Amino acid sequence: MATLSFSELAVGQQVGAKTIEFDRSSLVKYAGASGDFNPIHWNDTFAHSVGLDSVIAHGMLTMGASVTVVEELIGSDAMIADYQTRFSRPIAVPNPGVAVVEVVAQVGALDEDAKTARIDLTVTFEGARVLAKTQVVVKFL
Question: Taking the model in full, what pTM does it have?
Answer without folding.
Answer: 0.94
